[in-house]
Amino acid sequence: MTSSPATTVDHPFFARIWPTIAAHETDQIRALRRENLAGLSGRVLEVGAGVGTNFAFYPDPVEHVVAVEPELRLAARARAAAAEAPVSVQVTDSTVEHFAAEEPFDAVVCSLVLCSVGDPDAVLRQLYSRLRPGGQLRYLEHVASVGFRGRLQRLADATLWPRLLGNCHTHRDTERTITGAGFTVDNARRELTMPVWLPLPVSEFALGRARRPA
User: Fold this and answer.
1) What separation, in Å, do the N-terminal and C-terminal C-alpha atoms of the chain show?
2) 114-167: per-residue pLDDT in tens?
3) Which InterPro entries does the record associate with it (predicted)?
């Protein structure tokens, strides 16, 4: 018999270190977060809100954000950030797999989260169904690299990296998974956020806008 996915996750080490990492993000990554949210309006679903780092960057036309964060320690911090946000933010501490909404959203935001979900294909199909026709998926994700960095990513994914960092898998072809779920990518680019000589597997980011066809 197959067990159903858990409604929350428990990553105590990651929950301890992520607030510090998030508080010391580089100006470049902060600028990418802001760009990822630019121009949004209406009702927004944010997946994997972490400690609420995105909340301060939502533009005024956004009416309401439902932010899903299944790690209870991080969700508590996200609620504190929501109280200071310039737009209305509601934080729910369940996995996206268990999240249900009565009406579709105008946009879905994914920031550094698709690397950590158990089944990216299923999650993106679910997010597709949560969007109104013509609604947007905004994503900022670190993605699979090639060459030496790609080999480093595969090594990291096969050893301790996912266990220590909240199930993060660094060598995922996230953009192919997005199109495989039915989304049309309108524009996307990749940026290297660390020097090429620095041997870290999470240096290459994809920033993009996709949509559910109308």
Assistant:
1) 38
2) 999 999 999 999 999 999 999 999 999 999 999 999 999 999 999 999 999 999
3) SAM-dependent_MTases_sf, Thiol_S-MT
In a domain, 7, yes or no: no
User: Would you say residue 1 lies in a domain?
Assistant: no
Residue 4 lies inside a defined structural domain of this protein = no
Q: How far is CA 91 from the centre of its chain?
A: 15
Measured distance CA(200)–CA(69) in Å, rounded? 26
Q: Which letter does DSSP use for residue 201 in this model? A: T
Find the CATH number of the domain harbouring 116.
3.40.50.150
Neighbours of 167 (CB within 10 A): 15
Judge whether 196 and 164 are in contact, CB under 8 Å: no
- CA 122 – CA 125 distance, rounded (Å): 5
- For 181, the domain range is 12-212
**Residue 140, φ and ψ in degrees, nearest 5:** -135, 105
Domain count, the chain: 1
Q: Is the dihedral of CA 161, 165, 166, 169 positive or negative?
A: negative
| Contact between residue 22 and residue 53 where contact means Cβ atoms under 8 Å apart | yes
Distance CA 128, CA 131 (A): 6
Cβ–Cβ < 8 Å for 109, 54: yes
3-state secondary structure of 94: coil
CB 84 within 8 A of CB 55: yes
